[in-house]
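Practice problem 4.
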């Protein structure tokens, strides 16, 4: 009917961090990013790399809300991807079927995506390994989703207990995934410099024989 809601709603032109801001997260452990954010920002611990040796990335988020047992929004999000983006797919924590497999993630890679994160499941591990971009999920199942919608692209979502908006910076490694809100990118990078210095100092002291925390230093 003419008054039916559209199956997929797509947000307008998204905000994006500056390239130099994104580049500043290169090689930064997720633990450092969490410390720079004041001890928060990590997604639920169950969201882990499906292929362990493919775990590290950093880049701007492009969000989609697929909802449970559907991936039409993931397909629609392909057109919003730019080189270096991280595709974030919210499913409401649904684990009854996969939200994507190797073919769809291969298309995401071909559109520039360098990582994928979902609070649901994925499938096709051999193919995902060949696609080559890190894929984080709560699990793996061969069950397939529908492609009917509804869903959204570019609007804020909640994944793994953390709010994520398009344009946030996403950092991942073997420990998990951390989201830096767009509004806090500058402050996070400023504090990150101090975190790195403090970590380097303490690491040197531990290697030098430190046996307890130097609380008074």
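Answer key:
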């Amino acid at each position: 009917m003419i008054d039916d809601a559209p199956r997929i709603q797509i947000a307008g032109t998204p905000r994006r961090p500056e390239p130099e801001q994104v580049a500043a997260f290169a090689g930064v452990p997720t633990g450092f990013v969490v410390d720079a954010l004041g001890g928060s920002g990590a997604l639920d611990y169950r969201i882990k790399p499906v292929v362990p040796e493919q775990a590290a990335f950093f880049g701007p988020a492009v969000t989609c809300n697929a909802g449970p047992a559907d991936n039409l929004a993931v397909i629609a999000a392909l057109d919003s991807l730019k080189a270096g983006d991280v595709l974030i797919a919210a499913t409401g924590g649904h684990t009854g079927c996969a939200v994507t497999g190797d073919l769809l993630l291969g298309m995401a890679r071909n559109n520039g995506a360098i990582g994928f994160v979902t609070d649901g499941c994925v499938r096709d591990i051999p193919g995902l390994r060949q696609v080559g971009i890190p894929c984080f999920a709560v699990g793996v199942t061969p069950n397939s989703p529908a492609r009917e919608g509804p869903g959204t692209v570019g609007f804020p979502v909640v994944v793994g207990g953390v709010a994520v908006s398009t344009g946030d910076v996403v950092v991942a490694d073997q420990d998990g995934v951390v989201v830096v809100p767009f509004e806090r990118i500058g402050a996070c990078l400023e504090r990150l410099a101090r975190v790195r210095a403090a970590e380097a100092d303490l690491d040197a002291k531990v290697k030098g024989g430190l046996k307890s925390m130097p609380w008074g230093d």
